[in-house]
Structure formats: structure tokens, C-alpha cells
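Project channel, design review

CF: Before we commit to the Guillardia theta constructs, I'd like one complete example in the thread so the newer folks can see what an input/output pair looks like. Taking Large subunit ribosomal protein L21e, cytoplasmic.
RD: sounds good, go ahead.
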Amino acid sequence: MGCGKARGVRRNTRDMFQKAFGEKGLPSMSTYLTTYKLGDFVDIKVNGAIHKGMPYRYYHGRTGRVWNVTKRALGVMVNKQVKGRVLSKRIHVRIEHVKPSKCQDEFKARVKHNEEVKAKAKRAGKRIEILKRLPKDPKPGYIVKAKKQPVHTMCAVPYELLA
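CF: and here is what came back for Large subunit ribosomal protein L21e, cytoplasmic:
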């Protein structure tokens, strides 16, 4: 007698853990030679070819922060929502299932740019312009020109009951 549905650790992962089209085999050496430090942001992406150190399917695609570095694995702190609260889960994941995250790239570039602007303004003895990101301005107004053709005023046709 069956139990109705599968309750295994890797259930519903047929598409989730498969490799991209055209990819196969073991990971390259660059995967193993990447250096991770405490506090780095990493993306958890399960490699289906490596069964050891594979995280639970919930964590696939999540971004976490490194809190522990061992010989073959990383300790990653990931936020998980359970009912109404957010828990900080600490899991160990092998290096094959982790890649450096790009979530901080834009922020770091903006900080670097702001520092350059501040230094430039200080050297010139001027006040600093606004460094905050601003939303896009509305598009400027313009005049529509009708060429050679008269302008027609359109209005709705009154409703008539057909009965």
C-alpha cells in the first residue's frame, strides 16, 4: 500500500536539480578554486551531479551569507519564512552547490562612484551634489503637429436600446 504521495528529501526536484541544456559531467576546477571569506554573499544553486553536501530543495536559488568556512564546505546563513516570522537558518553546503553572488555589485560600484565624487568636490572646494539615486523624471511635453490633414474631434456614439 502506498502512502499517497512521496515524502522523500528530493521530492519534486526533477526540473529543479537538472543541469542546463548542453551541460553534463562534473564541475570545473574553477568551482573548487574559488575563495570564499566570512561575510561573503553566496547563491545556493544545487549541482545535480554531486550528491554529497547537497542542501534541501527549499534553499535552491536562495542567497545567504557565509558564516563558516571548512575544507570542503561553507556554512551559509539563509533567511526562511515560517508562518509569520523570519528565521535565520544556518546550513552547511558543499562548494559545488554554491557560487559567489552578484547582489552587492551595483551597491559597491555606487559607493565607489560616490567616494570619487566626494574627493573631486573636496579638491575643487565645492559643495557635493545629490548622491542619492533618484527616480526617472517624467517625459518632457511636446506639441503634436497635424500635417495637411484636418483634425477630427471624436466622441462616443450614444447608446440605443435595440428591442
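RD: helpful, thanks. Residues 105-124 form the longest helix (20 residues).
CF: The CA atoms of residues 44 and 61 lie 5 Å apart.
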